[in-house]
Design goal:
The protein has 203 residues and is α/β, with parallel strands linked by helices. The chain contains ten helices and five strands. It has a five-stranded parallel beta sheet with strand order 2-3-1-4-5, sandwiched between helices. Helix 1 packs across helix 10, helix 2 packs across helix 5 and helix 5 runs parallel beside helix 9. Bound molecules: cytidine-5'-monophosphate. Cytidine-5'-monophosphate binds next to helix 2, helix 5 and helix 9.
Amino acid sequence: MKFTVAIDGPAAAGKGTIARSLAAQFGFGHLDTGLLYRATARRVMDGEDPLSAALALQSSDLRRGDLRTAQVGQVASKVAAMPKVRTALLDFQKNFARREGGAVLDGRDIGTVICPEAEVKLFVTATDAVRAQRRHAELSQKDPALTVEEVLADLRARDMRDAGRDTAPMTASADALLLDTSELTIEEAIEMAGAAVIAKMAV
Ligand code: C5P
């Protein structure tokens, strides 16, 4: 059975939480595509050129413990704007999307470029203030001096770059269900996303 759930949206809107939960609920594989760009960025920060870094990625790169920092996120959004880097990562994502047994992918271009034929497409958003609060709560555990304002500025810079680039910009596919999680609990957001999957499975 092939069944793809494509989840796109800006940073810290709740995509990852929803994706992991849907994958567990329906027994689908999950790919956090942001990790591909973060792992590429990490290699670039260590001195590799962006295309070689993307082509050399191994699954061990995705398990590195230092990928979730704001600094890696910024470099990731710069390498992600390079068409040759995106092309190098395309087939792996496309194959994962159509794997047997179902797949959930979260990122920026899943419903538009990686898997336009996805059975369910969600575009997950939240206000800038809510996203900054959420990401701050996560990152300040390791970096107590970090302020919400710094996190907000970081998210906005990344979102502008991701939405403004020429190749595969972050944008909602015309047939995506818009899910604004600003006023929702995690459970409510997961339930709404799950309902969209169940509705499509019943067709
Ligand atoms: O989702 P995450 O914040 O980990 O993604 C890091 C960066 O990777 C994003 O800011 C974006 O530039 C890039 N990205 C992308 N396309 C995807 C997933 C992530 O361009 N499908």
